Amino acid sequence: MALGASRRLAELGDILANLPETLPCPAFSENFPFVGFQVDPEDVDMVGTVSGAINRALELAFGWEARSKGTLPITERGPGVCALVEVLKLYQEACDNPESDAILLKWIDDIRAGAEEAYRLANCPLPTWQFPPQGLEAAHETHGSAGSSAATKLPSKKRKRATSEWESDDDEVHASANARVS
Q: Which of 23, 27, 33, 53 is the most exposed place for a label (fewest CB within 10 A)?
């Protein structure tokens, strides 16, 4: 089963947040000016949709030729690069069907391919991760709970080896989360 945009964005966020330290980390990125990104209303008027305006902003930043090649160069690390995930989340929120929007998924895949290339060139492995449990436990783990006690221990996050392919263990995650809620 192919993974949708939400899961891919979560994985991309981990990958970008842990880019190799051999990449420069500028205080302000001219290459990735996405910190505090807001959709330009004039672009929305020009192209007709918020997602289209975000697509245009990304094309201006990366160049339309870079996107047509399928790998977007990730040449630095830091807040500017990590902000790409927030920009893509804005795109996701503006889509009618974000989990299968071809343009959104292409942006995610192309940015990931560029990040994977940065790891390869630095001779570093991709980060490993396992997403937090879904449902009630995830809310407790992330935000805490007024009614929770110290005796209620949530399972620790297990880590798994990342691959360059989008893997799906959604059924396993859902079954595990459902068993803990019962």
A: 27
